[in-house]
Amino acid sequence: MKIVLTGFMGTGKTSVGRELSRKLDCQFIDTDDLIEDREGKQISLIFKENGEEYFRNLEQTIIEEVSKARNVVIATGGGVIKNRTNVKNLGSRGILIWLKADPEIIFRRVMMEGGKRPLLDVEEPLAEINKLLKERMSLYMQADMSVDTNYITPEETAHEIIEHLVLDTEKVTVDLQDRGYDIIIGSKILAKLGLRVKEFRPSRVAIVSNKSIFPLYRDIILSSLRKYHIAPEIILIPDGEEYKDFLWAQYIHGELLKSRFDRSSLLIAVGGGVVGDLTGFIASTYMRGIKFIQVPTTLLAQVDSSVGGKTGVNHPLGKNMIGSFYQPSLVFIDIDTLKTLPPREFYAGMAEVIKYGVIADGEFFNFLTTNRKDILSLGDSIIRVIRRSCEIKADVVSKDEKEAGLRAILNFGHTIGHAIETVTGYRKYLHGEAIAIGMCAAAELAVRMQVFQKSDVNLIKDLVRQFNLPADIPTDLNIDEMLNAMEIDKKAKEGKLKFILPEQIGKVRIEEDMDRGLIREVLA
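^ that's the sequence the OP posted. Answer follows.
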């Protein structure tokens, strides 16, 4: 993100900016320093020799250039806020922070620096400070937040800013060049969502959620947004996988059109995978694409569906068959939402967590085995579970956004899992439960292909069962219907069934054309 420090001279913009950039390990830019470097002389001389108008034009040029930077802290000159173009440029994908101090303290600080400020080259500098502050007060109030620096150090100021911006939490970055985004993971951070939404300068905001989830978080989310003068539209759908379809997509499109949402608008998905997938699909198609933020409230959504940009709706003939690759602008995970999650939903989320251990990290798999009790009680281990899962997925997505190759490994367990969901009408099994069955079946297939050890299959099944998930193919499912569902699945290509098979715990392979006879054996 981009943090922009504004305020009057002597309020600590440069010292606080340096401290912030150090703590956040990002670039620091001081616009006054850039101007002096470009002109080869001090600002006081620029004012004296060229006049204030020349300086302000030069300042605007510099601001336009540095405003395009990301992952940066920018300290601006005291008069930057007077120019509307500057404010617009600096505020684009950034947070404006007003550092303020009393006139007497500003005067004392400036005098301690030597008093060489062009605008204070007058007989009564304190009176001039009061006058200028009064003139600029309404301009400084355009900032997104303010910090009083009267009696705190630059380090303390930086800490307060980091806390307000939820930057003292766990963060994982999905690196997609100019379309990359952050996954923020923390406790009790929903109350700070508003400032991060403000960063995107949306013209309109809509929250998409369901009728079960939203009442739980309504007050805290709306309070946070209204603090920054954001009054969102609320669009609620029924709770259930069967509502992730074209009918409800059309309904949401209609609500946005009736409310005159435009291309600068933003959607916030609050809920589980159904809400996130549907909202992402709406965002990708409404006016050919608007921004959206994921606020996942289920473990399954936090570790999987909210990350990576896969959006879509279901069709009676197949799950997620209609959709798009469309990345969110931010993923905002408050782990405290898991406290309201029904146990069955939590267990279902652990299926995707186990998947990450099998496909990419054997040590993480072992961690899940040895820390089961702490994970289930939402102890300290849950942060590591979510962060590591997001790290693995973010790494894969960064290397293969649209599943041209590597990303397919994230589908471990999904070919059979999706088939189970399809033939049961998305009503009998939760997504994670179906995937748990699919992972165990894929591991059995790998044994029949002689690329995996039976003892490791037992380890996977044991861990799946430890988290109260099903491990065996249901006996009441029709095998032919299952195979037909796999043929229609989007992972099938030219009649060939692609499977992800484990070679060892922590490593998998992609089998492009799986033998249907072996599949029948496992399903039976």
